[in-house]
Structure formats: C-alpha cells, structure tokens
C-alpha cells in the first residue's frame, strides 16, 4: 500500500432552507494500493447494507478512433462472464445475496455499482476483482455482446422516432474535436470490425486498477475493507493507461442548424446545445442553475413561455451536462434544450422564443424567490441521491476520479447556494445564438424524405 488518508468530512446531508444548512459528519478514509487502485470507504453503521461502486476512467469521449462504441461495449462485456465466473454467475450471485447491480457508460467514466447486505461483502469484492483481472475473451462471447449492443442501438436509436438525436446528431453539429463529437452509443462498422485482440487491448489499456476507484459505503469497518481490498485486488497488475486527450473547446464562433426528416416522427422536435466552460470555471455552477431555471418542471421559464404561454411547444427537457449529470465532467460539456413543438410552427420561431427568454434573464435578472426555489430543487435532488448507500458510493468515486479527493463533492451545496442573480445574468451570456448548434427533426414529407434524405441548412 502506497498511501493512506483519513478524513472527517463536514457533510451537508439535509435539504436546504432559508437558514444555513445543518452540518453532519461523514467519516471517509482512503487508501491507494501498490497497484494504483484507490479505495475509499465511508462507514455508515446502522442498517446492514453496503453500497459498492467500481469506477473506471474510461467513457465514450476517451475511446480511441476506430473504436467507436467500445466503452459502451465493455459495459456489456463486464457482465458477460470470466473464466472463473461464466456468464450469468455475477447476476445469480447478486440476486441470491439479496442485492442489485447495474452499470452505466458516461462520457468520461464507466460506473459499476451494487447494493447488498453487509455479510455479502466478500463475494462482491471477489466478483469485481475477478472481472478486473480478466474477462471471457473468446470470439463467441464477443459476438454475443456485440449483438446485444447492436440490438440496443436498433431499438433505442434506429426505431426511435427522433433517432435519439440529442446523443447522435447534436454533438456532431456542436463540437469540433472527434472525442466530443462522435457517437458514443456505438458505430456498427467499428463494432463489426472489432476482433478479440482489439477487445483485449482495450481492456489492458483502461480496465486496470491504477485507472479505477473502488468506493464502499455501509455498515463495514474501513480497515476491514482495506484489508479485503488488498486480498482480492492487490495482486492485479497495474497498466499503462493511454494519455487523456484535451477535451476543452472554446465557444462556437457561428451557429449551425441541421434539418432531418423522420418516417417515424409524428410531430417536429429540435435539440439545441451550447459548449460549456471547464468545470472549474466561475460560470460552471451558475450555468447549471440557469439550466434548471430554464428546464426543470412546469414552473421552468421555457415551459411557461413556450408551452403554457405562446403554446408553440408541447414538451421541454434539458439542462446542464445532461449526459453525465451534475458538475462531473472533463474539458467541455453542453447545455441542452430538447423541445417538441407543434406542426406548422417554423423551427426558427422556436429558436427565437428560447432566445427571448435567455435575453430576458440577461437583462432583467431572476427574482430572488425564483432563484431560491430553483437552487432548493437542485439541492433537494442532490441530497435525495445521497440517501442510498450506492448513490453515496458513486459520488465518492466520482470525487476521486475528477477531483482527486473524496470530499470534492461536498463543495457542491456551498457552490450552488452561493450563486446570485448577478451570476445567472452573467451565465446567460454563454447562450448566444451564434454559439448554438441545433438539430431539427421533422415528420416525413415528399419523395426526398421517403428515400431517407437528410441535409444541413443554414
């Protein structure tokens, strides 16, 4: 073991109110094994339940060119079995232990989590260490999981009336760098071209202990977790992780609009996005607040203006950093607005209505009561996520991955509470028309649409 640290973190674990939020202690200890695996533990005595997260610093923005969809593919391969625990064993052990599990591929990380009774800790540590050591890399296993991913794309993308355009098309229109712009869901050509050797190489590069974080939260002593982590994970060799690309991009210099027709869409919809600053920028959290102010619920500005006011739209969603959530991201991210609107309404009218609301905020600011309501909603959602032990374990793992310290996430409430109306007005300057990219999907019309034609228009 190379290093160890113990922290008693002042944690905000109650919903905000007009008065300062009460503070409670959250015990957190960290240790780095000799192979580079960071282990973070928060002892939560009481109910005998454990939340466990293993985070790997690989997401779809970090996958190599010609390997589009590999990060997503590996989320499936990690449940496809190992030489020691063939396919199905992981889920059977989990269910037999009274636990639940899942995985999620994000732009910058891939997260695997479990929730289970405390006495089952050993078997879950063994399962996670086993699949960190190696996977079932036979051709049949690869073909099976490749087909699963392709079928998921067919169902969720190709059969979706709008083609999941905010994930598929909007990043291509918004960003310049391939890492930010490419389709992270998976490209059939790259998936079909993947060999067993390619998959082994990806695993050896990114699924190594020195590129991972193990977070455990629950009714277990920290020293016991460290000892068991050393026993189960300590012998796994570290790897040489490829250099991380620079994901930052300046704001767009000019707007872009892509218009597509869909045979499945019954009503038009559009997605618009703006490039956001790095997460440490002074405007990052005000932009998160602005995103909620515009999009969150029936009281949001865009819903009030476009759905209930002018009645040109039928559905509003979006916000800041929507693909990863909260304030966790590297380089740049986007602020997204997804709007379904009525037939016969020109998309330019929808864009103009959004611009009018942004300009209104920039000029008039936000009433104190409205700003307080939005900040309260943001923090209420944040606190709710921490109520489950696996939710807290994910936050701890992300704090290590993005900040290098487990207490990083506890700064979030303070940063949100500190946002002023002046900050939100300043943040609105990021949402200018010239910095926006828009994808418009309309119902099929004409022979060109029937042939599946799609084009870009200014």
What does this structure look like?
With 458 residues, the protein is an alpha+beta fold. It folds into 2 domains: 3-233, Metalloenzyme, LuxS/M16 peptidase-like (Cytochrome Bc1 Complex, Chain A, domain 1, 2-Layer Sandwich), CATH 3.30.830.10; 256-456, Metalloenzyme, LuxS/M16 peptidase-like (Cytochrome Bc1 Complex, Chain A, domain 1, 2-Layer Sandwich), CATH 3.30.830.10. Helix content is 40%, strand content 21%. The protein is built from 18 helices and 13 strands. The chain has a 7-stranded mixed sheet, with helices on both faces. Strands 10-11-9-12-8-13 form a 6-stranded mixed sheet. 44% of the residues are buried. Mean pLDDT is 90; it is low at 1-17 and 447-458.
Largest sheet: 7 strands, mixed
Output the CATH class name of the largest domain.
Answer: Alpha Beta
In spatial order, strands of the major sheet run 1-2-3-7-4-6-5
| Spatial gap, N to C terminus | 58 Å
Category from helices, strands and their pairing: alpha+beta
- State which percent range the strand residues make up: 15-25%
Q: Regions with pLDDT < 50 over 5+ consecutive residues?
A: 1-17, 447-458
Do you know the CATH topology of the largest domain? Answer: Cytochrome Bc1 Complex, Chain A, domain 1
Q: Percentage of helical residues?
A: 25-40%
Roughly what is the average pLDDT, rounded to an integer?
90
The Rg value, from CA coordinates, equals 23 Å
Tell me the name of the CATH homologous superfamily of the largest domain.
Answer: Metalloenzyme, LuxS/M16 peptidase-like
Envelope shape: globular
């Amino acid at each position: 073991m190379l290093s160890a640290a113990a922290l008693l973190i002042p944690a905000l674990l109650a919903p905000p109110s007009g008065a300062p939020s009460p503070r409670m202690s959250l015990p957190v200890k960290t240790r780095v094994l000799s192979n580079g695996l960071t282990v973070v533990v928060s002892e939560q005595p009481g109910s005998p339940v454990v939340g466990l997260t293993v985070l790997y610093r690989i997401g779809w923005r970090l996958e190599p060119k010609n390997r589009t969809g590999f990060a997503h593919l590996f989320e499936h391969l990690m449940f496809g079995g190992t030489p020691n625990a063939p396919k199905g064993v992981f889920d059977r052990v989990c269910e037999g232990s009274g636990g639940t599990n899942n995985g999620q591929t994000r732009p910058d990380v891939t997260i695997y989590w479990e929730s289970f009774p405390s006495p089952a800790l050993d078997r879950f540590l063994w399962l996670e260490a086993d699949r960190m050591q190696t996977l079932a890399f036979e051709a049949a296993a690869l073909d099976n999981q490749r087909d699963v991913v392709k079928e998921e794309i067919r169902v969720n993308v190709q059969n979706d009336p709008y083609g999941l355009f905010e994930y598929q098309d909007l990043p291509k229109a918004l960003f310049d760098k391939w890492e930010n712009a490419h389709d992270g869901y998976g490209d059939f050509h790259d998936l079909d071209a993947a060999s067993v050797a390619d998959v082994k190489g990806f695993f050896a590069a990114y699924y190594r202990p020195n590129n991972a974080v193990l977070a455990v939260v629950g009714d277990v002593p920290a020293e016991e977790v460290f000892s068991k982590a050393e026993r189960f994970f300590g012998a796994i060799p570290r790897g040489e992780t490829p250099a991380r690309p620079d994901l930052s991009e300046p704001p767009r210099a000019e707007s872009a609009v892509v218009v597509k027709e869909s045979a499945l869409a019954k009503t038009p919809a559009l997605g618009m996005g703006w490039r956001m600053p790095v997460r440490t920028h002074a405007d990052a959290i005000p932009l998160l607040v602005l995103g909620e102010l515009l999009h969150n619920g029936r009281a949001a500005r865009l819903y009030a203006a476009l759905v209930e006011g002018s009645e040109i739209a039928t559905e509003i969603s979006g916000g800041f950093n929507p693909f990863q959530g909260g304030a966790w991201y590297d380089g740049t991210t986007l602020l997204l607005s997804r709007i379904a609107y009525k037939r016969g309404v020109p998309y330019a009218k929808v864009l103009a209505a959004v611009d009018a609301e942004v300009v209104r905020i920039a000029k008039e600011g936000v009433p104190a009561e409205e700003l307080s309501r939005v900040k309260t909603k943001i923090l209420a959602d944040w606190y709710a996520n921490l109520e489950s032990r696996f939710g807290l374990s994910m936050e701890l793992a992300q704090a290590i991955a993005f900040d290098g310290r487990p207490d990083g996430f506890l700064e979030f409430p303070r940063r949100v509470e500190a946002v002023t109306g002046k900050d939100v007005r300043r943040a609105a300057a990021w949402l200018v028309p010239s910095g926006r990219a828009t994808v418009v999907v309309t119902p099929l019309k004409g022979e060109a649409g029937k042939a599946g034609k799609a084009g870009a228009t200014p």
